[in-house]
Design brief:
This protein is mainly alpha-helical and 428 residues long. 65% of the residues lie in helices and 3% in strands. The longest helix has 26 residues. The chain is elongated and about 105 Å long.
């Protein structure tokens, strides 16, 4: 759209240039200054200006549009200093354009004065006054005057603003005043109104719930960010929450450590040693050996004061795994014993051990048969059956098994995380 001019002794159209888009910075919300993005004709009424005023305004506008904001400001300063007896409309448009230029130059305190002066004149159209209010909200925000920014944003919205940038100021200014509940309510209302939230808003909403100790909603949002947007930074926090849930049982720890291993989140020697010990106690010496081998291969184990003990542990589980292999293969040939809970548990564990030594088909068959019997902890068994399916490369079936546990009060979160880990794991 061509830039409107201010003709001599005739009606002129007030130029309205919108402020730049607002941006969210991860975990520290702020509005980033960006180049001016667009220009549009304003809805102001026509008014007569003197030739010298029109010339100064047009020159400033041309400089601004050419990317010479500092020169535009100098032109406006000179006009204010030299032009006498400015009419209200002339003073208003001069203050308004100067405020825009100062915003572009990141001179936010000066921009506040200019924009407030333009509003105080009362000579603008409702639409132009509204745009001034929108820019005021942004200026307050960039000055870190968050209470004033929120107030200005609410006033702009009350005057009819639907600009996403104004909503962004309101939400972030509310958040940065530590009103986490208020910012969450604003974002939930925005989501209900618009049908969805942008990624940055989703992250801010999750952060607001986290700060307000609303664990249920934080987990809900964090899972959504992980599932829908592949935000891998949520993995450590979500996994750390699993074992802190009320009612968590120590027997489920092995399933957490397995997922950490699968996700490459084992960094300390104790991580590998704990998982190896849990697998060994569960009658899975081959799995224990594989865990220790991984730790040695990564250079986490086999060094320092504990190196000799770690080597002995690996030798022990390796020997036991070799001794168990023959008996496991013999067990695979026998019919499944499912007469009572203990027999079913033994059958399930035998199947899991067979999967660990690479006997996938007979192992999965025993595990599946045991799932139809009265197992002592059927939900954990289904979770572990999903892990065995994933190990066999049957990711979709594994995810389906995990989803059957998704509603469990303690294992549900872990099951949902396992499902995320096996469905398109490279994208997570």
């Amino acid at each position: 759209m061509p830039t409107p001019s201010f003709p001599r002794r005739s009606a002129g159209t007030l130029l309205s240039i919108l402020a730049a888009a607002l941006a969210l910075s991860s975990f520290s919300p702020k509005l980033a200054a960006q180049p001016a993005a667009a220009a549009s004709a304003a809805s102001a009424p026509s008014f007569a200006v003197r030739a010298e005023v029109g010339a100064a305004l047009n020159k400033a506008i041309e400089l601004f549009r050419a990317g010479k904001a500092a020169e535009a400001r100098d032109t406006l300063e000179q006009a204010q200093a030299t032009l006498k007896d400015l009419q209200p409309a002339e003073a208003t448009v001069l203050h308004r354009i100067r405020g825009l230029v100062e915003m572009q130059l990141e001179q936010y305190a000066a921009a506040l004065q200019s924009l407030q002066a333009a509003l105080a004149s009362g000579a603008q159209s409702a639409q132009d006054a509204l745009q001034c209010r929108e820019m005021l909200a942004r200026a307050h925000f960039n000055l870190k005057a968050y209470a004033d920014a929120a107030k200005a944003a609410r006033e702009a919205q009350a005057a009819g603003s639907k600009a996403p940038a104004v909503q962004a100021v309101l939400v972030r200014a509310t958040y940065l005043q530590d009103d986490f509940k208020g910012s969450a309510e604003l974002l939930e209302a925005q989501r209900q109104r618009d049908g969805k939230l942008a990624l940055d808003d989703l992250r801010l909403l999750a952060s607001a719930y986290g700060h307000s100790k609303d664990d249920a909603n934080y987990v809900r949002l964090a899972e959504e960010l992980l599932r829908e947007h592949g935000r891998q930074e949520y993995w450590p926090d979500l996994l750390s929450r699993v074992q802190r849930q009320p009612g968590w049982q120590a027997r489920w720890d092995i399933d957490v450590y397995r997922l950490r291993l699968q996700r490459g989140m084992m960094e300390e020697a104790d991580d590998y040693l704990v998982l190896a010990e849990l697998a060994h106690k569960a009658g899975l010496p081959e799995e224990a050996r594989q865990v220790l081998d991984t730790g040695f291969a990564k250079g986490v184990l086999g060094k320092g004061q504990g190196a000799a003990e770690q080597e002995r542990l690996r030798a022990t589980v390796t020997r036991q795994a070799q001794e168990d292999r023959a008996s496991l293969e013999a067990a695979a040939a026998r019919p499944a014993a499912l007469g009572n809970a203990r027999a079913a548990a033994n059958t399930f564990n035998t199947g899991a051990a067979l999967v660990s030594i690479g006997q996938t088909s007979p192992g999965l068959a025993l595990m599946q048969a045991a799932l139809g019997a009265a197992l002592p902890d059927a939900e954990q068994a289904r979770l572990q059956y999903g892990q065995a399916l994933a190990r066999a490369g049957r990711g979709d079936e594994a995810a389906a098994s995990f989803r059957q546990v998704a509603g469990h009060p303690q294992l549900g979160l872990l099951a949902r995380l396992w499902a995320l880990a096996v469905v398109a794991p490279g994208a997570r």
